[in-house]
Write a structure and sequence with these properties.
Length: about 200
């Protein structure tokens, strides 16, 4: 694939399709490991980056974003933070990608068995900066609990609600992202990565 093929991605739908196809390759074990050749590194270094998707995912070491979508250098603008929470830093990063790099898709990707969500559900004692980190997750869990969920079902629901919380955070936190979404230039979608089998579920 040449640099121009990567540049050809213009719509959010094409970007989603490319991620879906990459995850299918990952699942089937038929990965291409694209865009890692030395020549490609030199080319992207010279011409600048044109990632076709922004992915906000958890820092969990079992959620390697480029791997699960079978993508390489310059393909995904990846923002990873424990619990895939969205505050000013994450919003600013996504805003840079959407507004300055022209990346047409933002994916907020939670994952099953997320430790950050589980810790809040289990009311683990979270001190210092971890307490601040999971601030948004605490209100998410409160809402899931109010719906009557308990145990593993509560964790599962909170993981899904937390994806929506982060999507809302991007829209509320950035008038620029909101404008691009309203104009149809950028699409924001949610996803859940299943640790059990490597599948990305689109929600
Ligand atoms: Zn996690």
């Amino acid at each position: 694939m040449s640099h121009h093929d990567a540049l050809a991605i213009v719509t959010p739908e094409e970007a989603i399709e490319r991620l879906q196809q990459g995850n299918e390759r990952f699942l089937s074990g038929k990965t291409n490991h694209p865009h890692i050749a030395r020549k490609w590194l030199e080319e992207t270094c010279e011409e600048g980056q044109h990632p076709f998707a922004t992915v906000i995912a958890c820092s969990d070491s079992r959620v390697p974003v480029e791997e699960v979508f079978d993508q390489g250098v310059g393909d995904i603008f990846t923002i990873r933070v424990a619990g895939n929470v969205v505050h000013a830093d994450e919003t600013g990063s996504a805003e840079y990608s959407a507004a300055h790099l022209g990346t047409p898709l933002i994916v907020v990707m939670g994952h099953t068995k997320c430790g950050a969500v589980t810790a809040v559900v289990h009311k683990d004692k979270l001190e210092g900066n971890i307490h601040k980190l999971v601030h948004n997750i605490a209100s998410v869990v409160k809402r899931s609990r109010a719906k009557g969920f308990k145990g593993d079902a509560l964790i599962d629901d909170a993981i899904r609600e937390n994806v929506q919380e982060s999507i809302n955070g991007l829209l509320k936190g950035s008038t620029e992202i909101l404008r691009l979404v309203v104009e149809g230039k950028v699409k924001i979608v949610g996803a859940i990565y299943h640790l059990e089998n490597g599948r990305v579920e689109w929600i």
